[in-house]
Design goal:
Distance between the termini: 31 Å
GO molecular function, one term: metal ion transmembrane transporter activity
Number of strands: 10
Shape: elongated
Helix content: 40-55%
Membrane topology: Multi-pass membrane protein
GO cellular component, one term: membrane
Main location: membrane
InterPro entries: CorA_TM1_TM2 (IPR045863), MgTranspt_CorA/ZnTranspt_ZntB (IPR002523)
Largest sheet: 8 strands, mixed
Number of helices: 19
Number of domains: 3
Strand content: 5-15%
Length: 602
C-alpha cells in the first residue's frame, strides 16, 4: 500500500530542559556554591567508619579531580543527581522519590548495594572458584582474610579477581582500603563522556601517554546496542539508566528505515480478508468487510465485522501482527581493571539494562559444536548481563584454551575472556553501522519507494548522526588499543617477545575494527556528498518548474494588459472573447514548445 511507504520521523530527539540544570549544584568555578551543597550531603567519616573516603577527602584539595569521587561516595550516586532533602525542589529531575522517607531509603540502598563476584584461580588451574558477595559485610570478611594472609607472609599463588558490577560507596571503600587501590582507578569509571563543556564540574585533565603506561590499571572502551520494539519501551529504558550509580547514557541512533516498522506479510492469513488490514492492533478487535465487488467498504472499520464473530484457532490469533516501531539505543561503556603483583585484581564492569533485547537477540556461542550423538555443554543465557557473560565464560574456559597455550601469568586467561567478549560487542556495533549506511544507499537509489516525495533531508539527518558518532567510536577503539599495548608492555618484556602472547590476536582484531571505522567515515563523507548533490538537483528541478510556469503566464499577462487598454465598456464582452481566444492559443503553443524542448533535452 502507498500508506505503508509514507516516511516516518527520523528521530524523536528534542532539547531537554534538565540539561540547563546541569550546574544546579555549582559548576567547576562556583566554589562557594559547591561547598554549600557539600555540607548538605557530607557524612562524618569517623562515625561511619569509611577510612578510604576520609583518605580521598584529604587528597582532594591537592588533586581536584578526586573531589568528584568523594562527592560520589557521599551522595551514593552521581553528585548531579543530588536532591535537596528539605522538599524545596518539587518534581525535579533527580532520581530519588518525592517523599522524605523514600529518599532516605533509596539513598541507603544505593550506598550499600554490593554486586561483587570473586573468581579465585588456584595455581595452574583454569576454572576458578566463584563466590558472590551480596552484602558489604561478607566482602569485608573476605578482604580481611586476604590481608591476613599477606601479613602472615603466605606465599601468593594463583589469582583472586574481584568482578564488580556498578559501584557504590561501601564497595569502593572496602576494596580501596583493604587492597590499597589508587583512587584514580575508581574515579575513571564513574562517568562516560565524549567531550566536556567548559563548566563541567567532573572535568578530568588529560594524561600523558607516558603516565598512562606506568599505571597498574587500564581501561577498555566499547559500545553496546540494544533493541526496543517501540518508543515507550525505549524511554522507559532511558529512565532505568538512572538506577545505575555510575553515570551512563542511552542514546537513540536517530536512524529510521522502512524495515524498522511492522508491515503485513505478502499473503493473506484468511482467504476472505486482505492482508494489509491485519497490521492494525489487536485492541481494535475489528476488520473491514468486503462489498459486492470484493473490496473493503471502509478502511477505518466503522462497518467492520468484530473479530470475535469469525471462527479462528489459537494459532491464527497469534498470527495477527502487532505494530512495531523499533528503536535502537546505543550506550558507550567501559571495563576498568587493576592488578596487584599479578595475583590480585579488580575488574569494574557496567550494569546491563533489563529492558529490550541485545541487538540481533543473542551473542555468539563459543562452545565447540558437539558431534552427532553427543550432548553439548550448557549454552549461555541470551538474557545474561555483561558481567554474567564474563563470569560464565570464566567458568567455561575450554574455548579459550584451544586458541593458545597459556603462559605463567595467571591474568592471561581472564583478560582473554574479557577482550573476546568486548571484541564481539564491537563487531556487532560495526555490523550495525554497516546496516544503517547500506539502508541509506537503498534510500538514495529508490527514493520513491523508501522516502516518499523527495525526502532527502531525512537521509542527511541520519548521516549527520553517524558523522558525529563514528569518530567517537574510532577514538574509543584507538584508546583501547593503546591501553592494551601498555598492558602487554607493563612487565618490561622485550618487544620481540610480546608478539608471542595470545593478546596480540585480540589486538589485531581491535585494529581491524578500527580500520572498518575509518572506512565508515569515508563512506559517510561520500554519501553526504551524493545526498547534497541530489538535494541540489531536486531544488534545481523545482526552480525549473517555477521558471516554466512564470514563462507561460508572461504572455497571458501581456495580452491582458493590451486588452485592458480598451475604454469602451459596452464592448467589454467582445474584448473578453478576443482575450480568451488569444491567451488560450498562445498558452497551448508555449506548452507544446516547452514539452518538445524538454523531451529533446532528455
Amino acid at each position: 500500500m502507498v500508506v505503508s511507504l509514507r516516511p516516518t520521523p527520523v528521530s524523536d530527539w528534542k532539547f531537554k530542559k534538565e540539561w540547563n540544570d546541569f550546574y544546579s549544584t555549582g559548576d567547576l568555578y562556583a566554589t562557594k556554591k559547591q561547598e554549600i551543597y557539600r555540607r548538605q550531603w557530607e557524612i562524618k567519616t569517623d562515625s561511619h567508619n569509611y577510612p578510604y573516603l576520609d583518605y580521598i577527602k584529604t587528597l582532594a584539595p591537592g588533586w581536584r579531580p578526586l573531589q568528584y569521587l568523594a562527592d560520589f561516595m557521599e551522595v551514593g550516586t552521581d553528585p548531579l543527581r543530588w536532591r535537596d532533602f528539605n522538599n524545596s525542589d518539587k518534581n525535579h529531575r533527580y532520581t530519588y522519590p518525592d517523599d522524605f522517607v523514600g529518599r532516605e531509603e533509596k539513598r541507603s540502598e544505593r550506598v550499600s548495594h554490593s554486586r561483587v563476584c570473586l573468581l579465585d584461580y588456584e595455581e595452574n588451574e583454569v576454572e576458578p572458584h566463584v563466590t558472590y558477595f551480596e552484602r558489604p559485610i561478607d566482602l569485608r570478611s573476605k578482604l580481611l582474610e586476604i590481608n591476613g594472609d599477606e601479613k602472615d607472609h603466605v606465599p601468593e599463588s594463583g589469582l583472586k579477581l574481584f568482578v564488580v558490577e556498578d559501584l557504590s560507596r561501601d564497595t569502593i571503600d572496602l576494596l580501596g582500603h583493604h587492597l590499597r587501590i589508587e583512587p584514580d582507578f575508581f574515579r575513571s569509571h564513574l562517568r562516560e563522556h565524549a567531550w566536556f563543556n567548559i563548566r563541567d564540574p567532573f572535568w578530568v585533565p588529560p594524561s600523558l601517554h607516558m603516565d598512562v603506561a606506568s599505571r597498574n590499571w587500564h581501561q577498555v572502551f566499547f559500545c553496546r546496542a540494544r533493541y526496543f520494539t517501540d518508543l515507550a519501551k525505549f524511554r522507559e529504558a532511558q529512565r532505568a539508566v538512572d538506577n545505575f550509580n555510575i553515570k551512563r547514557k542511552l542514546d537513540e541512533d536517530e536512524s529510521k528505515a522502512l524495515w524498522d516498522r511492522s508491515y503485513p506479510t505478502s499473503k493473506p492469513m484468511f482467504p476472505q480478508l486482505h492482508t494489509s488490514f491485519f497490521r492494525r492492533r489487536k485492541k481494535r478487535n475489528e476488520i473491514p468487510e468486503r462489498n459486492s465487488h470484493g473490496n473493503h467498504k471502509n478502511i477505518s472499520g466503522e462497518q467492520g465485522i468484530p473479530l470475535n464473530d469469525i471462527q479462528m484457532t489459537n494459532a491464527q490469533q497469534e498470527l495477527i501482527e502487532e505494530e512495531v516501531d523499533a528503536k535502537v539505543g546505543l550506550m558507550r561503556t567501559k571495563a576498568t581493571f587493576w592488578w596487584k603483583n599479578k595475583n590480585i585484581g579488580v575488574l569494574l564492569l557496567d550494569p546491563t539494562l533489563t529492558g529490550g533485547f541485545p541487538l540481533w537477540r543473542e551473542q555468539e556461542n563459543w562452545h565447540e559444536k558437539p558431534i552427532p550423538g553427543e550432548v553439548g555443554p550448557r549454552t549461555p543465557d541470551p538474557e545474561f548481563s555483561f558481567a554474567e557473560r564474563f563470569i560464565y565464560w570464566a567458568e567455561n574456559p575450554a574455548s579459550f584454551l584451544r586458541k593458545a597455550s597459556l603462559s605463567n601469568d595467571p591474568r592471561q586467561l581472564p583478560m582473554m575472556i574479557l577482550l573476546r567478549t568486548i571484541c564481539a560487542d564491537w563487531i556487532t556495533m560495526s555490523q550495525y553501522i554497516k546496516t544503517r549506511l547500506s539502508q541509506v544507499d537503498w534510500e538514495l537509489i529508490h527514493p520513491r519507494e523508501f522516502l516518499g516525495h523527495h525526502r532527502f533531508y531525512t537521509i542527511l539527518n541520519k548521516l549527520h548522526t553517524w558523522r558525529r558518532l563514528v569518530p567517537v567510536y574510532r577514538e574509543m577503539l584507538y584508546t583501547t588499543t593503546l591501553h592494551m599495548e601498555f598492558f602487554l608492555n607493563s612487565e618490561g618484556k622485550p618487544s620481540d617477545n610480546v608478539e608471542d602472547e595470545p593478546f596480540m590476536e585480540y589486538l589485531n582484531e581491535f585494529m581491524l575494527i578500527l580500520r572498518q571505522m575509518d572506512e565508515y567515515e569515508q563512506r559517510i563523507d561520500r554519501l553526504t556528498a551524493v545526498t547534497t548533490s541530489t538535494i541540489n538537483m531536486v531544488d534545481s528541478h523545482r526552480i525549473k518548474l517555477l521558471t516554466g510556469l512564470a514563462t507561460i503566464f508572461l504572455p497571458l499577462s501581456l495580452i491582458g494588459t493590451l486588452f485592458s487598454m480598451s475604454e469602451n465598456v459596452d464592448k467589454l464582452g467582445v474584448t473578453f472573447g478576443y482575450w480568451a481566444a488569444a491567451s488560450v492559443s498562445v498558452m497551448c503553443f508555449l506548452l507544446v514548445v516547452y514539452r518538445l524542448s524538454e523531451s529533446w533535452l532528455a
